[in-house]
Each structure stands twice: as structure tokens, then as C-alpha cells.
Amino acid sequence: MTTRSFRTLDTLDPRGKKILLRADLNVPVRDGTISDLTRIERLTPTIRELADKGGRVIVVSHFDRPKGKPVPEMSLAPISEALARVLGKKITFVPDCVGAVAQNAVAAMTDGDVIVLENTRFYPGEEQNDPEMAKSLASLADIYVNDAFSAAHRAHASTEGVAHHLPSFAGRLMEIELGALEAALENPQRPVGAIVGGAKVSTKLDLLNNMIEKVDMLAVGGAMANTFLAAQGLSVGKSLKEADMLDTAKSIMTKAKQRGCDLILPTDVVVASDFMAGAPSEIVPVTDIPDGWMALDIGPETVALLNKKLGKLKTLVWNGPLGVFEMPPFDTGTNAVAQEAARLTKAGQLKTVAGGGDTVSALRHAHVLHDMSYVSTAGGAFLEWLEGKLLPGVVMLGEAGHDVAPL
Ligand code: 3PG
Ligand code: MG
Q1: Ligand 1 pocket, 151 CB below 6 A?
Q2: pTM of the shown model
Q3: Could you tell me if 107 and 210 lie in one domain?
Q4: Which of 28, 175, 241, 347 has the maximal Cβ count within 10 Å?
Q5: Domain range spanning residue 358?
């Protein structure tokens, strides 16, 4: 999959057109307040461009997981207000996403207007990708623009089904996300490396297997590394590990060797007696993890090794922390490597693309979130892309989506 075959907004004249814009307004909310506006901020260029050029912008999105019925706490109404504030433009919120309420709201629009429709997941047809739901959404508009890369791994009515019925375009955020991922993995400047951290080999198996085929260097950190160390016959004390994944880890190591991918595991770790912030800790070689202790971070020798390897790369993909970064001092390794990646990026020597769940928090914690070349807003979609999977929402913007069935 490449971005070359996508239709972008460069080829769309939005004037006077009703445009169904699939956004991802699934923002994190804590105690009724939006805790991170990144997804909203990154969406505004597309809305502004379409509205400024005279398009009638109909924003649709899911929010949270209401499971096919209206859940008042999961209304998009407050998020629509936040969007209006960031955009600096009036937005009308419409309390339904299909049917007469939505149709009437669209009929009342004039050129340059922006409306936000209620949560698509209030209907079971959204997640079921029900053709009727897709048709109802499509009937609101002339054009479909998908700017929700972070929801593109879902084959839902508003991310996939609707694109069968309307001419479909990638929004600016979608275009940027796909461009960044392509530059990192499809067509990277080499050598290209990946840092993959996190807790479990089992959840990142497809990702590791795909990475081995694409990158020249793969550094494995986090609790996942313990499983690899155990697979090499080392004792990892009471560290988190997956006993049933040892053979899998072995086969990944063998495959890496066959493919000439430099697989890097920790050579030393920070071990603690308890899983607790500030727990007594020690730095030990991986060959010397004491019984009853657990590895919670990579050690300084491993940091130095990784940082040296980073200096040789031209491109780096980062997914997952290298230690328990939420619990100081076990954030030291992640911070140090993230800061070196940031330094090389700022010096113009390295292109860094990061994304997926915890990664954004870890980079923010290391104060380098804004020093990477690109940080994806996507969690699951970023992971699935790294796994080499085709994302249904993205597929519909490529050749497959060019022939649309009329309603
Ligand atoms: C996300 O936040 O990962 C996307 O918005 C998709 O949400 P989902 O995991 O509930 O499908
Ligand atoms: Mg998710």
C-alpha cells in the first residue's frame, strides 16, 4: 500500500459540495475534561481548508464504545464545542448522525458551514458495517473525505462502508499519516531501525515478524525482552515473561539472523525487588538476574549500545516503551534513548516516526514528543500498519475505492 494512488484534497473542488468528513474525535477524556487535544488540533487543517473553499463540512465520528445504543455520557456534543474553540469557528452540533434530524440539518447548511453529527456508534450498524447504515450516511453528502487514520483499522460503516457509495478522498491528516508511515517503512532511507517495547510478545508477534523483514535493526525492550532472554536460557527471576512464547521468541531470533536483521536485546537491566515506584533496585548484567527480583528497565550499558546504534541509522520507527516509564526511576532507559533519538532528529541525522498507545505518553514523559519527525495520533491503526496489514479505511481511499456504486 502506498500513498501514490490516493486521491487527496488537491484534486477536490469543495465549493458548494456536501462533504462527509470522517474524523476521529475519540479523544481522551478524564473527569469530563478533554485531557489531550492533539487529535482535534490535527484535524483542523482539513476542516478549515474545506470550509474556506466553500465546502459544506459534515463531520462524523465515533466516540468511546457505547455498543450500539445512545449513551448520554458518550455524546459528541462537548467535543464538538472543543472543536469549535480550537477551530475558531461556529459549529452546529446535530444530535443524530442519520435520519431526518441529520438530513434536515444538512439541508439548512450554506457554503462554508461546519456541523458535527452525533456519535456514529450510537447505532449498532456502525460497527457491524451495515450496508443500510453506510447508505444512510452516504445519502447526506456528495463527497466522502476520510481524515481518521487512527480509526482506519476498523471496517465500520463510517470508515469503510460509506466509501462504497461516494467519491472518496484522503484528508490532510490522513495524507500526512500515510506519508510518514510510507517514508518510514515502505520506502525508507536506510539503514532503518525499529525500537519495539511493551509488555507482551504475544500482542506484538505479527509486528515483530513484519519488522524483521523490513528493518536492518530491531531493538526489543520492555517486559517483552524478558521472554527473549528466557528463550536464550537465561534466568529472569520473577520478571514478567510469557512462558508459552519461548519457542516463538526463538523462531523470531532465528528469522532475524537469516534475514540479516540486527536483533538487539538488553545486555544489562535494572532489577527491583518489587513492582513499585522507588522500589530498591540494582543494575545487573542479564546473565545475573537474581532470583526473586524483576527487570523493570534496561540498564546503562544497553542504553549506550542502543544510542550508538541509533547514530548509525537514517530512519527509526518507535513503538512501545523500554521499561516501566510510568514508575520512576524505571523511566531512565526510555528517557535516555528517546532523548538521543530526539537529539539526532533535531540535528537532521535521523528521521523518527513514533506511534501507538503508550508510546506517545512515554515520549511526552521524556519531554521529546515534539522533537520526533512524526508522531502518529493512532494507537491500534499504527500497530496494524506496522504488522503489515491493509487497513480497511485506507484501502477504500486507494484503487479499490475509485469505483463507487451509486446509491
Ligand atoms: C482509537 O482511539 O484507537 C480509535 O479511535 C479507535 O477506537 P476503538 O479502539 O474504540 O475502535
Ligand atoms: Mg483503540
Answers
A1: yes
A2: 0.90
A3: no
A4: 241
A5: 188-367
Q: Please determine, for residue 343, whether its predicted confidence score (pLDDT) is greater than 80.
A: yes
Q: What is the pLDDT of residue 3?
A: 44
348 catalytic? Reply is no
SS3 283: strand
Task: Indicate whether 406 pLDDT > 50.
Answer: no
pLDDT single digits (tens) 108-118: 999 999 999 99
Quick one: 157 and 213 in the same domain? no
Residue 385 maps to a domain: no
Q: What is the CATH number of the domain that holds 192?
A: 3.40.50.1260
**In the predicted structure, residue 404 carries a pLDDT above the cut 70:** no
3-state secondary structure of 317: strand
In a domain, 107, yes or no: yes
Is-catalytic flag, 39? yes
Q: Are residues 150 and 238 in the same domain?
A: no
**Side chain identity, residue 313:** L
Q: What is the average pLDDT score of the chain?
A: 94
Strand order in the sheet with 281-285: 281-285, 268-272, 294-298
Are residues 321 and 362 in contact, defined by beta-carbon separation less than 8 angstroms? yes
pLDDT at 347: 98
Lowest-pLDDT choice from 135-139, 177-181, 251-255: 177-181
- For ligand 1, mutation pick of 61, 62, 391 (most atoms within 8 Å of CB): 62
**How many domains are contained in the chain?**
2
Question: Does the CB atom of residue 127 touch ligand 1 within 6 A?
Answer: no
Looking at residues 114-139, what average pLDDT do you find?
98
C-alpha span between 393 and 170 (Å, rounded): 10
Q: Give 205 Cα–ligand 2 centroid separation in angstroms.
A: 18
Decide: helix, strand or coil at residue 214: helix
Pocket-testing residue among 22, 26, 39, ligand 1, by greatest number of atoms within 8 A of Cβ: 26
Q: Which of 48, 53, 89, 200 is catalytic?
A: 200
Is there a single domain that holds both residue 84 and residue 116?
yes
278 inside domain: yes
What are the grid coordinates assigned to 360, written together? Answer: 506517545
Q: Are residues 96 and 47 part of one domain?
A: yes
